[in-house]
Every structure is written in structure tokens, then in C-alpha cells.
Amino acid sequence: MDEIRILLVDDHAILRDGIRSLLEKDTQLKVVGEAGDGRAAIEMTRKLQPDIVLMDVAMPLLNGLEATAQIKQSHPNSKVLILSMYDYESYIRQALAAGAAGYILKDACSQELIDAIHCVHQGEAVLSPAITRLVIEDYLRWGEIRPAETSNDLTGREREVLQLIAEGYTNKEIADILCIAIKTVQAHRANLMEKLDLHSKGDLIKYAIRKKIIEI
């Protein structure tokens, strides 16, 4: 059988260690790398070209939903499987809209996770039973699966800047992280406030928490 190459993405090293030990009990699965945030996940995907990116959602610098969207845009052959403790409908919709091939909850048993990885590798879509129920309920309420919320039509870069602002980074630090000019960061901040009709950094932080762009 072909080896399935996996990139682990989670901001907790102890969880990555546990997941690695679990997955490597299956001789077909090989963990080829680890990342602790969404930005590192994108870079590691570029370098390693894994078959599966096992992606957490709530992470610093860039959350897993934004990272998934960017990975699927630039590396469509790498499949993303979300592994999260959160069963928020908004997360599920955003993950599927971003191109994730599945969404598994962290309370899943070990065999469920291993089976999910094999299914995703074979081109199937996989959802935890609890997630499937939420998706069905969403469909029954609305007659269709609602698209992910667009956060007032923010661009991907604006959502990145918003997360970093909410995490407490200065304009210079954000410019360094994103490799852009400070004036560009300031322009993004001004655009965010105008689009969202917000008037202070505190308002931006509250918005990011309310929209679950960051977790507290």
C-alpha cells in the first residue's frame, strides 16, 4: 500500500506528540512534519507536500480555517482534515467552504481518526457523527447548506490582520509577520474599521472574539 504522508498542525506540542504516537501505530501512516500555527502550516505544506494536513482550528498567528483556505488554493493536492474540539456551526461551514475534506472532533476514538485519514486519502468526505447531525439540522432549517459567513466581505489579508491585531501584535510586528510595510498594515486596519463600522482596537478585539476569529 502507498504510504500516507501527514502534516500535524496543532498549537499544543503535547497533543501533537500524542497524535503522532497514535497515528504511527498504523504502518501506512507517516507523520512527516509538525506545525504549531496556521502560518507555519502553510510553509510546511509548501516544503513537504503532505498527502494529508491534520489541522486544528483555534491557533495563534493564523487560525486553521484561514490556513485551510490558503493551503487548498496553493496546494490543492494536499487534503485537509480538521481535528478540533469545537463543534460550532460557523466553524464547520467555514471549514467545508474553505475546502476541508473532513471535520473530526477531538473526542473521537483513535480508530475513528485513523479511518477518517484513510477515507480522506481515498477522496471521500468525512464528518464526525455529531458534525453530520449539525449539518443535517442546518439543511433542514434552511433548505440548503448555508455558505460560510464572510465577516462583512473582509479579504483574506484583512482577516489575517484582524486576527493579529486581536492577539495583541503591534503594527510593526504585524508588518514583520506578514512581510508587508507598516503603512500597508495601517491601511488594512483603517479599512477594517470602516467596513465593520468599528472605532477602536478594543472594538476590533471584541468583534474577533464574537466571530470566533480568535478564542479566549
Blueprint of the fold:
Layout: E1 4-9, H1 13-23, E2 29-35, H2 38-48, E3 52-55, H3 64-74, E4 79-84, H4 89-98, E5 102-105, H5 110-121, E6 126-127, H6 129-142, H7 156-166, H8 171-178, H9 182-196, H10 201-210
Parallel strand pairs: 1-2, 1-3, 3-4, 4-5, 5-6
Mind summarizing the main beta sheet? Answer: 6 strands, parallel
Low-confidence stretches: none
**Rg from Cα:** 18 Å
Percent of residues in helices? 40-55%
Give the termini distance in whole angstroms.
Answer: 43 Å
Q: Would you identify the CATH architecture of the largest domain?
A: 3-Layer(aba) Sandwich
Strands of the widest sheet, in order across it, are: 2-1-3-4-5-6
Count of domain modules: 2
Beta content comes to 5-15%
Secondary structure class reads alpha/beta
What is the CATH C-level name of the largest domain?
Alpha Beta
CATH fold-level name of the largest domain: Rossmann fold
**Discrete helix count:** 10
CATH superfamily assignment of the largest domain? Answer: Response regulator
> Could you tell me the number of beta strands?
6
Average of the residue pLDDT scores: 85
Principal-axes shape call: elongated
Order of helices and strands: EHEHEHEHEHEHHHHH
